[in-house]
Each structure stands twice: as C-alpha cells, then as structure tokens.
Write the structure tokens for this entry.
Amino acid sequence: GENVEQHPSTLSVQEGDSAVIKCTYSDSASNYFPWYKQELGKRPQLIIDIRSNVGEKKDQRIAVTLNKTAKHFSLHITETQPEDSAVYFCAASLIEGGGADGLTFGKGTHLIIQP
Amino acid sequence: NAGVTQTPKFQVLKTGQSMTLQCAQDMNHEYMSWYRQDPGMGLRLIHYSVGAGITDQGEVPNGYNVSRSTTEDFPLRLLSAAPSQTSVYFCASSYFSGSRPSTDTQYFGPGTRLTVL
C-alpha cells in the first residue's frame, strides 16, 4: 500500500519568515495530495490540495508544489503569522478527493511560529 | 447543515467491553471513512464506505466493524475493547462533484476521544 513520509516533525520559524514542509510518497499511481491543518484538540481541516496533473497551486500565503517524477510534494507558507502555529499533515490517495479509497497520511509536522 | 457529527465526545471503557461510535452527516455525502489518530502516528484509515451497503477495510481494520445501512450514518463498532484501541477517532465524509475539485475532499467530524483501561 501507499506510504507517506513527512519532514520535519517539528519546525520553528520566526514570525514573518517562510516555512516549508516536505512529503514523499511511494505509490506512483497516487493522484491526489491534500494538506490538513490541525490545531490542538480540534479536527483536521483542509487548507489546500493538488491533483496529479498540476505542478503548483497557490492560495494567498499558502502554496503546494508537486513533483510526480520524484514522488514528492511540499507545502510552502510565506509571511508566517502566530495563527499558523499548528500541526500540519500531508496525505495521498489514488482517487481524487480521497473519499473513494481513503487517505494515507504523513505523521505530521508541528509548526511553531516564534514572535 | 450540522456537517459531520460524532457521538460521544469522550468515552472510557474497560478491556473487553464493546461499544459503538456514532457518525452522521447531513450533506448527502456518498463517501464516509473512519480514522484513528495516535500521538506521532498521524491519522490511519480503519474502514471506509463509498455508499449505502458498501464498506471496505483500510490500513488498521482489526478489532473494528462497520456497516452502512443509510447514506447519513456510518457507525464504528468495537467488538472487544483493548488498551491498544485508546485513541482519538475521526469520522470523515465527502462527495465527488467532478466540476468543483476543491469540494471533493474529505471533511472531518469533531472526533471521539476513547480511553480503554
């Protein structure tokens, strides 16, 4: 089955700096790659996703890049703010949306924004 | 819409007890899934369903049963609870619209925190 590796497990950046979280996946057939943000004690919430036919996607301060040849994808957060502090999870699935076959998650990155 | 709801929010069981975690959604989503979240492990898929009457196993199905008799409900049953099942359980649902990809992804319920003594 699919295996998703996520690095780093903890990332501390100064407020205003950029943060980058990287994930690799094992199944070349995977087509859908979402990123979730989870605040302490709350549910995971989708922040951005990308399909396999797209190399990059942006949404304000957040961007995701995908390299299908190398089987890795990354989350980029620019101009970080205190409210960006949370645990971020990457995931992958074969079918778009992840609902039809389930998502395989990375183990998470605890992002800490230092004031 | 209430979205995805889960009950109970917290539960403590003794080893060997059985119980059912409830999940319901009012968005007419076809797809529903159960995940467990353990510290340092991310979320792992237990069971999922692509529609009423259809279920399939995920990565960690042992010790859990599911059924999908209606579109709205997807209960997770623990047959004989074990301390290894202490975890936070999340239910998720989604539909595939085709024309609006960003709405296809799974939306999570608030979770059930289960402790097995």
